[in-house]
Amino acid sequence: MPLTKGNQDIYTHLAVIYDEVMREIDYEDWADYIDALIQKHHPEAVSVLELACGTGSLAISLDELDCYEITASDYSEEMLEIARSKTALSDSTIEWKRIDFFNIPDDTRYDVVFMLFDSINYARDLSSVTSVLAQVKRVLREGGLCIFDFTTPQHSSKHAELMNDSGVTPDNYRFVRVSRYLEAEGNHYNEFVIEKLSDDKQSVLERKREVHVQKTYTLAQIRQAVQKSGLTEVAAYDDLDIIPATDASDRVTMVVR
């Protein structure tokens, strides 16, 4: 996930609880979906770049399909450290890189670039979305695909309060997540309080706080950004499906080239 453009401190302290926060995600299903989109729209693809890979679970699941040469990237070194540890004792060939998707190095070209879990919503206005997509366009090979998803205002209106959460990780980090959506400004806020507990869990050794701000976008707005970036829409799908997205979709997966 990006740490710039107004989100300078995020995913620093959150890395230690990220897998617990994302515990309900079926990464194998997500990997199968990405694979299905690639096979549908660019079956010759080999080289793949994931932006905002977090702790690497999706890249690892995609790597298990043994179909692609995968580079997985994130801006957060803390996230990447955990991702690398997951493959340290395996025969995985994933290349882990530190990349800020607001400033993607253009020394390598890829057949597919993807970023999921509403990472693009961290771009706080449409000009920033356009900039991210233009960065992606620069590193795509001819005919290459970009796949990304985003959440819409109706998603946050429906689900913001349901995202309130708490938990404790196996290594004694306790967290509370408070989620709220301010419709008037179109921003979804997630505040995390993260505490390191003693071994007996009776005292707090350290407390950190992170506030994440994501901008919600309509399908029409994202289509505008795609056009301005120089990319062309191939498809817009409803959530993790192959049916067309509509203005009523809560989450949209875009395929562009």
What topology does this entry show?
Layout: H1 18-21, H2 27-41, E1 47-50, H3 57-63, E2 69-74, H4 77-87, E3 95-98, E4 110-115, H5 126-139, E5 140-151, H6 153-159, E6 165-168, E7 173-182, E8 187-197, E9 204-215, H7 219-229, E10 233-238, E11 251-256
Helix pairs in contact: 2-3, 5-7
Note down, in words, how this protein is organized.
- This protein has seven helices and eleven strands.
- With 257 residues, it is an alpha/beta fold.
- The protein folds into two domains: 14-151 and 218-256, 3-Layer(aba) Sandwich (Rossmann fold); 155-215, S-adenosyl-L-methionine-dependent methyltransferases (N-terminal domain of TfIIb, Single Sheet).
- The strands form two sheets. A seven-stranded mixed sheet has the order 3-2-1-4-5-11-10, sandwiched between helices.
- A hairpin with a 4-residue loop joins strand 6 and strand 7.
- Helix 2 crosses helix 3 (57-63) and helix 5 (126-139) packs across helix 7 (219-229).
CATH structural class of the largest domain: Alpha Beta
Helix fraction bin: 25-40%
CATH architecture of the largest domain: 3-Layer(aba) Sandwich
Largest sheet: 7 strands, mixed
The topology string of helices and strands comes to HHEHEHEEHEHEEEEHEE
Beta percentage is 25-35%
Q: CATH homologous superfamily name of the largest domain?
A: Vaccinia Virus protein VP39
- The tally of strands reads 11
How far from one another are the termini? Answer: 22 Å
Number of domains: 2
User: Which fold does the CATH topology of the largest domain refer to?
Assistant: Rossmann fold
The shape is globular
